[in-house]
Amino acid sequence: MERKVVIAGNWKMNKDAAAGRELVESLKPLVAGFTDADVVVCPPFTTLSAVVAAAAGSNIKVGAQNVHWAESGAFTGEISAEMLVSSGVEYVIIGHSERRQYFGETDATVNSRLKAALKAGLKPIVCVGETLAEREGNKTNEVIGRQLRDGLAGLTAADMANVIIAYEPVWAIGTGKTATPAIAEETHKFIRETVGALFGAATASALRIQYGGSMKPENARELVAQADIDGGLIGGAALKADSFAKLISEALGR
Ligand code: PGA
């Protein structure tokens, strides 16, 4: 099964509108040739419009970092899926470990956000991953199995065609400690098998699974060369045009 590589930059709480526009302007010529990948940038909410405008007409797609589950209403501080769509946003990261760790995100809220995103026509990037204590306690598959079962509950195989899963071991995020390609592949394979058990073999074989956690130009090639690794969700290395472009080129084996 040929799956199109998908590389997404998670800018986290970095870059105002001017800095975001500048990064996208620098990135455009560098990634124009990467038509065999989906190239996505995910800026903070207030930078989205500037980045959507800057990316117009290029092969750079835009994603948000969170979405609320309601369509509108009394939810001070929140942003709905419809608002994102009407701002020109196509993708959305859901359930990043930083949201789980600092903002009370659970598999149930991930599930609610995911359903709202799909209903509005967004392409969700659903994050799963174990902490160091969970890995050392041999709980990795148990934790990720639960995140997938509960996070994806109630979805159909047709929904899953629009979903990307990002495997981000919490111990590898922003720490410089990348999972070795073999360790990452083992968990990616488990994710694909779990999705297969839930939604069927065809859905599992079409599913794109990104690796995230200290992915950089130096390790992207070997990671994406693994059978079940179909791209990356990139934090630090996505904040500069040259490193992000180089990472994509490595991931594509160029
Ligand atoms: P990192 O972040 O590449 O800086 O480790 C990845 C992420 O949290 O999505």
Description:
The chain is of the alpha/beta class and about 250 residues long. The chain has one domain: TIM Barrel. It has twelve helices and eight strands. The chain has helices spanning about 15-30, 50-55, 80-85, 95-100, 105-120, 130-135, 140-150, 155-160, 180-200, 200-205, 215-225, 240-250, and strands at about 5-10, 35-40, 60-65, 90-95, 125-130, 165, 210, 230-235. Strands 1-2-3-4-5-6-7-8 form an eight-stranded parallel beta barrel, surrounded by seven helices. Helix 1 links the parallel strand 1 and strand 2 (about 35-40). The relative contact order is 0.15. The model has no long low-confidence stretch (mean pLDDT about 95). It binds 2-phosphoglycolic acid. 2-phosphoglycolic acid (PGA) binds near residues 10, 212, 215, 233 and 236. 2-phosphoglycolic acid binds near residues 213, 215, 233 and 237.
